[in-house]
Design goal:
It is a single chain. The chain is α+β, with helices and mostly antiparallel strands. It has two domains: about 240 residues, no CATH class; about 140 residues, Immunoglobulin-like (Sandwich), CATH 2.60.40. The protein is about 50% helix and about 15% strand. It is built from 14 helices and ten strands. The strands form two sheets. Strands 2-1-5-9-10 form a five-stranded antiparallel sheet, covered by helices on one side. The protein starts with 6 loop residues before the first helix and ends with a strand.
Amino acid sequence: MDQKSDDWTLLRRYAERRDQTAFALIMRRHSGLVFSAALRRVGNRELAEDVTQAVFIVLEAKSKSLANGNGAMSQWLLRCVRFASANAVKIESRRQRHESSAAQNAHRATDGACSANPTDVLIWHEIAQQLDDAVLKLPTTDRQAILLRYFEDRPIEQIAASMNLTEGAVRQRLSRATEKLRHRLARHNGAMLASIDATALAALLVLHVVRPAPAGLSAATLTAIAENTTSTGLSIAKGAMHMMTWTKAKLAAAVVMGALAITGTGGIVAMNHATASAAPTPKPIPAPEEQNSSVTLAGVPPVVVKTEPQSGAAAVDSAIKEIKVSFSKDMQDNSWSWSTLSQDSFPKTTGKPRYLADKRTCVLPVELKAGQTYAIWINSNQFGNFKDSAGHGAVPYLLVFETRK
């Protein structure tokens, strides 16, 4: 595989200069990955071709907004396949309601796997439909290692350079990540996966996870993009983009509220999550002229004056166990809104938030991971439970930092 230019560089070249050769190279690298993932989800080769075309139509349409991406592009592609496949199945089910689910399952069970060992084929059929979602749910560094090695077919030395690790560390990471993946898949397919170890699963991934896309599919997709022709792929792409936009908005509204469920020795076991539609909107602070009075410290809302780690820090020690946020005023006890920007960027919590004796510093016990970017809203436009003693909601503040690899 030609890796002289990475995927995001090629996408930037296309977004900025409409470099058709750059986009065609991205498709050449990843059409097999996208088609294979689509086939695992929809179980029909023709429909998988439509989904593949849809994914690259979405990539082209979003090229400007995605051009500054990083990490493995295969992660974004697999997520797009998920949405495009869901929309494709919905469209297809409306068109062919007479087709029985039994026939669909029989077709899916015989498509896309080959091996000299019949047991391997059976195991692959058991795990294929859960594979991509299981990979996407792995921790960030494990997910990146799996994607680069098995989905993008990168050699160990390239993965080491990409992840800033030694080749030995990459091999260890891959071994641990594959075992984690095996455990995730075993939740759905315990009986079959009990007969293999991580090494055997890795061999299955090498053999089955990416198969060549049908001849002519890339050329047909490039033509559809260039001519903006009406096609099934375009219809699927439009629905997928709508679903992606809706899901992104929903995730941005998911938040960790002040009420937590506590059991045993005080460890946190559950946190209440809410969406924007279910949460009160903070009341806006009137402008001074509307208050008909001058600005006073008591009358203005509290603001964040200090955070630990500092927002914008790029080499935070992942061993720290607490995140601290200090405000400009005394705050209401047992009232907070630690809100998510996205599911992947919110840290794992290990206890109940609390205020220190100064009544201005709120502490969130966490478990951080190395090489991870975290983004946490302290209040947000939808949730405003951080309030001062007079009931004024704190001004929303986005805390962003990155831990060392």
